[in-house]
Amino acid sequence: MKAKAILETILYGEDIAALRRFYEGLLGLKVRRELEGQFVFFHCGESMLLVFNPAVSAVKPKSFISAPPHGAKGAGHVCFSATAEELDRWRDHLAGHGIGLEADFEWPGGGRSIYCRDPAGNSVEFAEPRIWGLERRSLRNQKLVVASHNPGKIREIGELLGPYGVEAVSAGSLGLSEPEETGTTFEANAQLKSEASARGSGLVALADDSGLCVDALNGDPGLHSARWAGPSRDFALAMRNVEEKLQAQGATSPSLRRAHFVSVLSVAWPDGHVENFRGEVYGTLVWPPRGSYGFGYDPMFLPDGHEQTFGEMDPDAKHAISHRAVAFRKLVDALF
Questions:
Q1: What is the rounded distance in angstroms from the CA atom of residue 5 to the CA atom of residue 312?
Q2: pLDDT at residue 63, as a whole number
Q3: How many CA atoms lie within 13 A of 285 on its CB side?
Q4: Is there a domain that residue 137 lies in?
Q5: Are 284 and 149 part of one and the same domain?
Q6: The whole model's pTM is what?
Q7: Which residue in 209, 271, 304, 316 is the catalytic one?
Q8: Fewest CB atoms less than 10 Å from the CB: which of 62, 151, 233, 252?
């Protein structure tokens, strides 16, 4: 993983009043919060500058909103901006490298932070920008390019965006070509497409990378779900390929035909900022395919807890539970 933006950082000084006069009076930063003699928090652009008195800031006072002491050990503190989904991914990423969390903190006013320490003892935080009530990027009432040439996908994304006043145009209608999908994850491929369309159009771009992952096939077709349909995007052929491979494995009972859909929505701005959102939905595969709604592998996917395949479901019913809908709800929470 790669950190994208600093949300806050800390400076130290024992004369807090003098530092406030400098940063507020001379540099024009807005004071957001202060505890006299101990610390002052300034708003600067899209981030925060914290000035702590090292003589008294080792432990936060009880009168301040409770949170783990930070900037108290080592040289200081840094906070990286992250979405709610990215916080969970950072937690797992850090744990995978043997780094435990000091805290996973829900702020009373909304938003979440996770805290750990670097090798020097500095406090390292990842947090949602809304913990400070900072203005966040929004897609509401914007013109947006959908970085796809798949009519079904464009239609479904357009239906999801419609209620938010977003004017969606397709990459194909703007003459934008599809970049080669060389990534090794759904996130990487979605981001390749969103960044290419944002650069090519000068607009905010939304891309989806999605696929069907079949347990008995070791996750295939996965990233290559579209390729299994061939150059003509023949998903009847792709579904037959999946079924033939399942039959070859002897996977005839529902317990052996488990699968899940993955969707990653990537939003890229022309200035290089990118945010990704992942959704998954689990179910079993049926044969023969059922229904004419949806697209891709929908007619053979029966989501858990339902009696209709995605191909049989009314579009509104599918939008309520699909992998793309799960990812889209995360996107809405962050960007609308």
A1: 43
A2: 43
A3: 25
A4: no
A5: yes
A6: 0.66
A7: 209
A8: 62
What are the structure tokens assigned to 130, written together? 């809304």
CATH at 165? 3.90.950.10
Radius of gyration of the chain (CA): 24
Q: Does 316 participate in catalysis according to the annotation?
A: no
Residue 304 and residue 157 share a domain: yes
The verdict on 237 and 325 lying in the same domain is yes
3-class SS of residue 233:
coil
Token pair in block for residue 196: 């290419």
Contacts of 109 (CB under 8 A, 6+ apart): 131, 133
Coil, strand or helix at 30: strand
Dump pLDDT digits (tens) for 256-271.
Answer: 999 999 999 999 999 8
Per residue in 8-39, pLDDT (tens digit) is: 888 888 888 888 888 888 778 888 888 878 88
Q: At what angle do helices 151-161 and 323-335 cross, to 10 degrees?
A: 40
Structural domain boundaries enclosing 15: 6-132
**With contact defined as beta carbons under 8 Å apart, do 211 and 227 qualify?**
no
User: CB neighbours (10 Å) of residue 307?
Assistant: 7
How far is C-alpha 147 from the geometric centre of its chain's CA atoms?
17
Q: 318 and 169, same structural domain?
A: yes
Query: Do the beta carbons of residue 312 and residue 289 sit within 8 Å?
Result: no
Of 101, 132, 163, the residue that ends a domain is: 132
Asked whether residue 62 is domain-assigned, the answer is yes
Helices (H), 81-226: 84-96, 151-161, 186-201
Beta bridge partner(s), residue 125: 79, 115
pLDDT (tens digit per residue) in 193-206: 999 999 999 999 99
Give just the sign of the alpha carbon dihedral 142, 139, 149, 239.
negative
113 with 65: CB under 8 angstroms?
Answer: no
Phi-psi region at 218: left, alpha or beta (left = phi > 0; alpha = psi -120 to 50): left
Q: Is the pLDDT of residue 74 over 60?
A: no
Rounded distance, CA 127 to CA 79, Å? 7
